[in-house]
């Protein structure tokens, strides 16, 4: 059965947060999704920033016991977190726009977009998911060094080729 989103109260600052459940005998990634008051949860969740990736490559997950299809890139993030028990050790609650917003509900999506700066500001931390490393990874070689430098307050100069307009457009 397909997952149906519980409606948000659009007169308030409510959001959905997810929790990754531990691996079971079933390989399907399972999540719990709950509605919370944004003002009451400040610093009690991590927000994820990532590349959406192509819509054509979707994977099945379970949300509150119901089926939901998500894009492959965020499925890989969830799989990675579940497999290393990352979410259970450090990140009790996560906010991921593709899952926490009912994307088919235009009114809700617009409401949530208006709150995005506050959602990211209110997070304990924002995690930038660049994907898994592979021979096909399309990340400039110095990207990880640049992120490390920025995190440690160092200034940096971009040497090497600049990303193409197509590559820049893939990042949200």
Question: How is the secondary structure organized here?
Answer:
Elements: E1 14-20, E2 29-37, E3 46-50, E4 58-63, E5 66-71, H1 72-83, H2 86-89, E6 94-95, H3 97-100, H4 106-122, E7 125-129, H5 143-151, H6 165-170
Parallel strand pairs: 2-4, 3-6, 3-7
Antiparallel strand pairs: 1-2, 4-5
Provide keyphrases for this structure.
172 residues, four-stranded mixed β-sheet, single chain
Quaternary class? single chain
- Biggest sheet character: 4 strands, mixed
Order of strands across the widest beta sheet?
A: 1-2-4-5
End-to-end separation in angstroms reads 30 Å
User: Got a strand count?
Assistant: 7
Helix residue percentage: 25-40%
Low-confidence stretches: 156-164, 167-172
State the domain count: 2
Number of helices: 6
Strand content: 15-25%
Return Rg in Å: 17 Å
Question: What coarse outline follows from CA principal-axis ratios?
Answer: globular
| Helix and strand pattern | EEEEEHHEHHEHH
User: In terms of structural class, how would the helical and strand content be classed?
Assistant: alpha/beta
Name the average pLDDT. 81
